[in-house]
Design a protein that fits this description.
Elements (H helix, E strand, L loop, with lengths): L1 H20 L3 H8 L3 H8 L2 H24 L1 H13 L5 H43 L1
């Protein structure tokens, strides 16, 4: 019985990896070496579902980190296009508009972060005051 549990764990991990890399459930099942119906049943198991969601969040987090690493190059590209004398006026305007929009969004996000931090601090102070 222990062997079966270990096999399920390995197969479950293979199925989760396949889910994250294949186009559909049939391809994921085939890649994991299990039947489609088995994979559909596994999806209903809370432990499997939780592990799948955690793996998906981890993969998404890695993708987000890669995007953040590329932001400097993206801004450099926008600025080069914006000031390039060979760029068409419409391309320069689109680049400038993009720079302005992203700068505005960054300021708004910073403002939201400050407001949320202040609200969290106020809630913590209220909680401490209520417990005394």
């Amino acid at each position: 019985m222990v062997g079966h549990g270990a096999k399920f764990s390995r197969k479950k991990e293979e199925a989760i990896a396949a889910f994250l890399t294949q186009r559909n459930i049939e391809e994921a099942a085939k890649t994991a070496g299990i039947g489609t119906q088995t994979l559909l049943r596994w999806q209903k198991i809370p432990e499997f579902d939780k592990a799948y969601r955690e793996a998906g969040r981890a993969a998404f987090s890695q993708s987000t980190a890669r995007l953040q690493q590329a932001t400097s190059a993206a801004v450099t590209t926008l600025l080069k296009v914006m000031v390039d004398p060979n760029s068409s006026p419409s391309t320069k305007v689109r680049a400038a508009d993009s720079v302005l929009n992203h700068a505005r969004q960054a300021i708004e996000m910073e403002d939201i972060d400050v407001r949320v931090a202040a609200l969290e601090q106020a809630a913590e102070l209220m909680k401490q005051g209520g417990c005394s």
